[in-house]
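Researcher: I'd like a structural prediction for the single chain below. Treat it as a standalone chain; there are no partners to consider.
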Amino acid sequence: MAAPLPGLTQALERMFNKIAAWFAKKKKERAEAVMFERAIVVTFDRDRISATYPDGKIEAVAWKDVQCVAIETNDSGPWGADVWWLLEGAHDRCVYPQGATGEPEVLPELQSRFPGFSDQAVIAAMGCTSNARFVCWESSHAL
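Model: Treating it as a single chain, here is the predicted structure.
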């Protein structure tokens, strides 16, 4: 077998190292994004839903004031938080990312609280990798 061309081995090794470093950086970014998502805590009771952020900020809206439930997606995935739930009232709102602590328990609550809630919009949003907005439910009196 012939010896490799001079420098070819080193060039391939440098290229491999750059690719490996890029993947390591992206893996770290995703881990940080997941930690960000999990650090947001979503809770609800019979009167309201709230999202508490790590900096102490709380976004909350009373169930009776919700005028629109939507999902916004963006193209930052898989490295960033790319799916956001929005519950919007006339004056208040509750926004949190998919992956937030408590988030999985919210969907059944939304489905039971809001007649006509669109599971199809949820399915479409979960399959989207671009910047888009999916309305899952809107009150007839929403502005």
